[in-house]
Write a structure and sequence with these properties.
68% helix, mainly alpha, single chain, 2 domains, 0% strand, 435 residues, globular
Length: 435
């Protein structure tokens, strides 16, 4: 409840990331071919955002289109604490009596209070909602793998896995490998009809959103064309390790994926170092729990490092989960006194970093949109404003940009560079949007 209240009080005043722009356009008029939102479409997330936007608008809440997206990050960030606790408790229960009773709680607190997790729970994006759905499915599936859950838990986990892909497609890499392990493990206590029912539940979860998505996209061929276009843009316009195979790119991938999520490379290096000790410990005394973690998170880690733009740190959000668990495992000895002390230190570090950023984020619109709005207010007729394409695209829908109507009257044209009549602040807006 504290986490939820702290985030609802600082929901953003404007959109910022290009993906948030696409999501807002999708809420207004869903059309994947026009990148409203971008492929693969995120139909479940857009459906949730449409519902919340409608409710907030009926309540006369300011900027309902923006807050209708961001509110799900706050809600799911708070709900995810319960799913994380269940997941960590199931993993710790693999070897009863080895870890202290406070370990699952402390590991959950380390994840929830980490700078990346805390800040992502404010943003009008699908990352936190997708992770919440994925970890909910994981906790149910892992309970079956560890013997604490029944066949009905597997059925629920399978269905949520299918739904989660419609929230954020990358969740398939977090849930389906674990589901496959549960279905193929010979001594899991599951009968043949339980396994078939789980497969059917996954398929049902997918069909819930895939059929409306294809219909709304104008048919399977039109959707496939939009999906292919997005894939081509990603491979040609995004710096990823798969296409940029250099030592510098590999170093950046490791830096942005494992160190910066903790707020600073030095803090990240300390956490990763302790987590490595946790790997050695779990390998010796809890190999089964380590194996489950590897199946649950290694596929996503490989995909992220090779095929995603790692400089976009929010993509590394799922990797915070296993790192936190392993780090706390390394420090959990005796009655857990050391675990509580280290957890307190990490929480204090996170608050020192996250709260000033949270305050600034919730108090003002993003720099790009502030610059565009200011240029629109002061601009003269016929003036040409050049900026980053997503910012231009959003400003043409001025009714959603920080609630400012001036954007609707702002004539904005794309250009290769900053036009002579453009304000200096708009050049900064382009660089800010690019970052």
């Amino acid at each position: 409840m504290v986490f939820l209240a702290a985030h609802l009080a600082f929901l953003p005043l404007s959109l910022e990331d290009v993906d948030s722009i696409n999501f807002a356009l999708g809420v207004a008029d869903f059309d994947v071919a026009k990148h409203q939102p971008h492929p693969p479409g995120y139909p479940v997330f857009i459906g949730l955002a449409k519902a919340s936007t409608s409710v907030l608008r009926s309540m006369h809440v300011p900027r309902p289109e923006i807050r209708g997206l961001a509110i799900w990050s706050a809600i799911c960030g708070a709900a995810l604490a319960f799913f994380l606790f269940d997941l960590f408790r199931a993993l710790a229960g693999v070897t009863p009596g080895l870890l202290s009773r406070v370990m699952p709680f402390c590991a959950t607190l380390v994840v929830v209070m980490s700078p990346l997790y805390w800040f992502t729970a404010l943003r009008p994006l699908s990352d936190m909602t997708g992770l919440a759905a994925a970890v909910a499915a994981q906790s149910l599936i892992v309970s079956v793998l560890t013997g604490s859950g029944s066949a009905s838990a597997l059925l629920g986990g399978a269905f949520v896995s299918g739904i989660a892909i419609g929230v954020r497609s990358q969740t398939a890499l977090l849930t389906l490998p674990l589901l496959g392990l549960a279905l193929l493990l010979p001594r899991s206590g599951l009968r043949s009809h339980n396994r078939l029912a789980a497969v059917g539940a996954t398929a049902l979860g997918v069909l819930v959103w895939v059929l409306p998505l294809v219909v709304a996209s104008g048919g399977l061929s039109e959707y496939a064309r939009a999906l292919g276009s997005q894939a081509g843009e990603d491979f040609s316009g995004v710096v990823m390790l798969w296409t940029t195979r250099t030592k510098a790119a590999a170093l950046d991938a490791a830096l942005y994926s494992f160190l910066w999520p903790w707020g600073h490379p030095i803090a990240g290096a300390i956490v990763i170092g302790v987590a490595f000790i946790g790997v050695l410990r779990t390998l010796g005394v809890m190999p089964r729990a380590l194996g489950i973690l590897i199946v649950g998170y290694a596929p996503y880690a490989v995909f992220h490092l090779l095929f995603q733009e790692t400089v976009t740190v929010r993509y590394a959000l799922p990797l915070v989960v296993p790192v936190a668990f392993l780090a706390v495992c390394a420090l959990d000895w005796g009655r857990g006194t050391s675990t509580v002390l280290v957890t307190t230190a990490l929480v204090a570090w996170s608050i020192a970093l996250s709260f000033p950023a949270t305050w600034a984020y919730g108090a003002r619109s993003s720099p790009a949109f502030r610059a565009l709005i200011e240029a629109a207010r002061r601009g003269s007729p016929g003036q040409s404003i050049a900026d980053h394409r997503p910012a231009r695209r959003r400003a043409t829908r001025g009714r959603l940009v920080a609630g400012d109507r001036h954007g609707e009257r702002c004539g904005i044209r794309a250009a290769a560079g900053v036009a002579s009549g453009a304000r200096a602040g708009v050049a900064h807006a382009g660089r800010a949007m690019a970052r």
